Fold Fimbrial assembly family protein.
Amino acid sequence: MPAKEKPKRVINLLPKDEFEVSTAGRVLKWAITTFRMIVISVEIVVVGSFLARFSFDAKNADLDHSLEQKSSYIASFSEFEREFKNIQAKAEVLTEYTASQNQRVPTITSIVSKIPGDIQLTSLRVTDEDINISGQTTSEQSISQLIVNLKKDELFTDIALTEIGTQRDTPFVKFSLKIEIKT
């Protein structure tokens, strides 16, 4: 059996300093290695931030370019939008006007149905509160018949003859009526 090998002895020619073995020495050694790790970690974060800045700058430039393109795209539609809003406002006015006019159609139809045959209308003006009629006829009886016919209708609250007269050159009697509408 081979002889037992003797454990090798390690000879350290560099003597250990007593400071390294003391408590203060161990704390100092620990602090130096720990702070070294902290410094290295901070350097890694700083270098990472520095490198990340390049990608952030590129993204920022892309976003600025995209924003500029979209702004010019939106600006190109500003004229269209202004015109669209203008047309929309006109359409609202027209809708309100036609709605109010459509409410007056039965009223005007009622008036026209009550006009005697020998009366000619020269003008018809409709407002929200009243209707003004101007016309001419050959007899005053037709005017009085028209007024009587209109007074029988419940759509009207007041009928007033505002003007009546003749002209020298014509045989016609000209007249104007103001008819107040029941609201």
